[in-house]
Amino acid sequence: MSQSHTLKSPVLQSFIAGEWLGNQAGQALASPVNGETIYHTHAETIDFGRSLKFARTKGRASLMAMDFQSRASCLRDLGKHLLEYKESLYAISLLTGATRNDSWVDIEGGAGTLFAYASVGRRELPSGNLIHEDDAFPLGRDGQFFGTHILVPRQGVAVHINAFNFPIWGMLEKFAANFLAGMPCIVKPATSTSYLTEACVRLMQESGLLPEGSLQLIIGRTGDLLDRLDGQDVVTFTGSASTAAKLKVTPNIINNSIPFNAEADSLNCAILAPDVSVDSPEFDLFIKEVAREMTVKAGQKCTAIRRVLIPENQVQAVSERLTARLAKVSIGDPHLDTVRMGALASFEQKADVLAQLEELLKSSQVVYGHEDSFELLGKGSEKGAFVQPTLLLSNDPDAEGGAHDIEAFGPISTLMPYKNIDHAIALAARGKGSLVTTLVTQDPEIARKVVPALAAWHGRVHILNEASSKESTGHGSPLPMLKHGGPGRAGGGEELGGIRGVKHYMQRAAIQGSPTMLSAVTGEYVRGGETYESDVHPFRRYFEDLRIGESLLTHRRTVTETDIVNFGCLSGDHFYMHFDDIAARDSQFEQRIAHGYFVLSAAAGLFVSPGEGPVLANYGLDTLRFITPVPIGDTIRARLTCKRKIDQGKLSPKGEPQGVVVWDVQVTNQHDELVASYDILTLVKKQFD
């Protein structure tokens, strides 16, 4: 440890209302590596009324001056900035007791989450600050009264109360979603490791990228903050189930129906299926997964494996393999390259873990660990908050309590033998709701049976076998595109999950009205609404010039037998409905019909402007439905209407600015019946960058 950290013991500061607050030393924070004081919290009291006012005025205004696309770009740039200065964060992270490998998920995983949500915004969200969640649908018979749903940013503040184990990722995985949604936030990290969060916030603020008021930081207590919130605000919490339960019933939160999302510690399990033999690759994968989850972050992960469910006939083999693997883990000062497991985050945490371990020992026996003394590497580490990896064996896995109820939030796991796979499923459910479980099996039939049962009690189910192992991110790694959270004891909340995470910070509203009115509100063309036609083909207009509702009704084309024969020969599609007159007459259509994809191609031929112009390429096709069959002799035409524009800020391979335009296409026959319906996406050149 450097002398600067040992001697200066700098005072951490809160970032409140655009200013850094704190000069007077408050609570001393000790190094979990050697017990020396490394930082102090500040003693100054935070004015949370001023903090909230700043977020609701300056913060909201600065975020609403942007849109989804520009906020997504900002997240991407923030991620790049943090990676540029990541080594400074790694250096501070060592002070938390974490090894560099432990810190990778926290630091680079945190930046990666910013990148992931930047991609979500640019790929899935429109320009503007309103999401039209689903297609409008008619509520009346005459096509002039429709309904749909929209999402708009909540007008309050997101308050994030985070745990000590991931001081950076824990902040950024929530910040990314609320920022993209357009909601300012106030972050309160756990005090014991808040110095790493503070360092990250300083980097973000000093980058010049953060919109004013979009992010504030609390060092220390939340004071009366929760009592000052209102119904437009959101509270998220990550930590112990007991603390979550206390905060959730804060009178002001209940009285104002303030959304409260809890992600609590849980008694996650891993299941070794009965089909896995000792000599199989999956057995080794199981041992590695359990040992890793026991020792990464010194077992201080809300997703760590606490219960190890194994067949009764595998107890000895699993015990021996796990013991041998755990015995190789070097423990001590994470500044040393040879150390594989560091300290717990604080001495308070060590005391709690040891107390919970003593409770577990009332219903289990020690297989490995729990020694009075064990080897520690590094000078002064004997004064640190270290706990030896400890493997227990449950004496009665069917009994109440024990590892089904008690969590030692450190490098502690309990072996629980089961009789058959149904017994394993029942034991897994005894955790009363968990964030994640891993099933290790070679048999797809076991997965088919077990996974749906596990899914009722777990937020994520990780199926591991040799085929997936080379790419698997592991049991304990929440991914930005997948939901993180679990039922029951795990808190009952949801975070991440790609676009789902963004929607938690938005208000959903049902809207009703005429198609033209709904088009005006959503910024998307709704069928039946007002359209605009001119002598200029829509494909001849640049991105900026196109108006929502700009439309083209094409000339007609009569489908002939020659069309069907030629298309069949060209495509190789000789399906009987197109070529076998007898079989077609016996079908529900009672006659030969054109290929659906011929109708699609013919429609494109009707509405495409063939000359060089602003439309650069076909980008994709969505919501395709073939509604009415097209027999030989029918006459079709198409209506092409500009439905939605998305300015993603992208450049073409030639460096030309472009956007995405979604076109509504309706193909009708001579009776004005809808034949085919779909959205076509095109890349359209912009006149200006």
TrEMBL record:
Domain MaoC-like: 548-648
Organism: Marinomonas polaris DSM 16579
Protein name: Oxepin-CoA hydrolase / 3-oxo-5,6-dehydrosuberyl-CoA semialdehyde dehydrogenase
Alphabetical UniProt keywords: Hydrolase, Oxidoreductase
Species lineage: Bacteria, Pseudomonadati, Pseudomonadota, Gammaproteobacteria, Oceanospirillales
SUPFAM superfamilies assigned to the protein according to its UniProt record, in alphabetical order: ALDH-like, Thioesterase/thiol ester dehydrase-isomerase
Pfam family, one: Aldedh
PANTHER family given in the database record: ALDEHYDE DEHYDROGENASE B-RELATED (PTHR43111:SF1)
Family matches, as Gene3D superfamilies: Aldehyde Dehydrogenase, Chain A, domain 1 (3.40.605.10), Aldehyde Dehydrogenase, Chain A, domain 2 (3.40.309.10), Hotdog Thioesterase (3.10.129.10)
Gly residues bias spans: 485-494
Chain positions covered by the region annotation Disordered: 467-494
Stretches assigned to the Aldehyde dehydrogenase domain: 28-508
GO molecular function terms attached to this record: hydrolase activity; oxidoreductase activity, acting on the aldehyde or oxo group of donors, NAD or NADP as acceptor
